[in-house]
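Researcher: Going back to the complex we discussed earlier. I've cleaned up the inputs and rechecked each line, so this should be the final set. Can you rerun the prediction on the complete assembly and write out the structure?
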Amino acid sequence: MYTSKISGLGYYVPENIVTNDDLSKMMDTNDEWIQERTGIKERRHIKKGDGNSTSVMGVKAAKIALERAKLTKNDIDLIIFATLSPDMYFPGGGVRVQDMMDMSTIPALDVRNQCSGFVYSLSVADQFIKTGMYKNILVIGSENHSGGLDMTTRGRAVSVIFGDGAGAAVISRSESKDRGILSTHLHSEGAHAKELSLEGPSTEHWVPELIEENPKENIPYFPYMNGQFVFKNAVVRFSEVINEGLQANNLSATDIDMLIPHQANLRISQFVQKQFKLQDDKVYNNIQKYGNTTAASIPIALTEAWEEGKIKEGDLVVLAAFGSGFTWGSAIIRW
Ligand SMILES: CC(C)(COP(=O)(O)OP(=O)(O)OC[C@H]1O[C@@H](n2cnc3c(N)ncnc32)[C@H](O)[C@@H]1OP(=O)(O)O)[C@@H](O)C(=O)NCCC(=O)NCCS
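Model: Rerun complete. Updated structure for the full complex:
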């Protein structure tokens, strides 16, 4: 059986910086509240007319990852695209990437697992590599949140948190037994689906119904989040799934060289850091600059950490995610 390794990483974020003060001009919020509760100072939003979309940003990140993997588009056997904000309701973003990158008719798979999307995608890629079916897989996490948020005071508890961006990784076959993706661990609990969700347009809330009802409150085509419930579940699940990954590999928290938590909220990351007694240089956070970019957050953070020289050969890197679904997962990687 083969092992899979991350052979190239890249990310792209739109140039347009939106600070907390910028948001306070659109809704009743302020820098102090946002920083204190979430750690976020600013985020990136696509600007109308800048040419970006979820797929376009994904392609920009993917091209960097490919170049760093020293591969071309012709070497890629499969595209896996994770997003909750595809350009179109259907088809998903994977086929758009295949077209925009002018790739041959390779398969394109879309993963709908929100904040856990990248870890789920990595796990799928890992299985295809391990069985020998594919050699190189392009995994992309990309989100265009800004186009779908309620940017009024009504939506402030959600809108201040999320940002736009994309991250990509090339997953390649490796012959090494002790390097690469050691294991991945995935979970879900659909009983809490509605606690962090966007209900319409969907077959439950289809367009004619939305137009007819046009409710003033709880508009189903804006995301809804039960913030405190999400927070409480997140801290428990993050810890559980990191422990599960460590135990599966006979490792302990002291073995972790770098933890890259999904950038949900700085307070959640700090809580997890404390639980595992990790020093500051063993956890990477960049939510301060980008907000929560959902499926893109782990590949963006992983790329930045690697670019900054914070991940070295032989390091034990742990990825962990939790989000809407609820879904959660971890990946244990020997770099
Ligand atoms: C969203 C979150 C920051 C809210 O913090 P909180 O301490 O739970 O705050 P609450 O929702 O209880 O709201 C407290 C007050 O702030 C207000 N408020 C909400 N959003 C606000 C904003 N952007 N600016 C100012 N005030 C705001 C509320 O209306 C409420 O006012 P009230 O007390 O007068 O009713 C927090 O619940 C959280 O981080 N949850 C996890 C979210 C997350 O990680 N999501 C991603 C998962 S992948």
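Model: Worth noting: Residues 54 and 144 are 5 Å apart (CA to CA).
Researcher: Good, that matches what I expected from the previous run.
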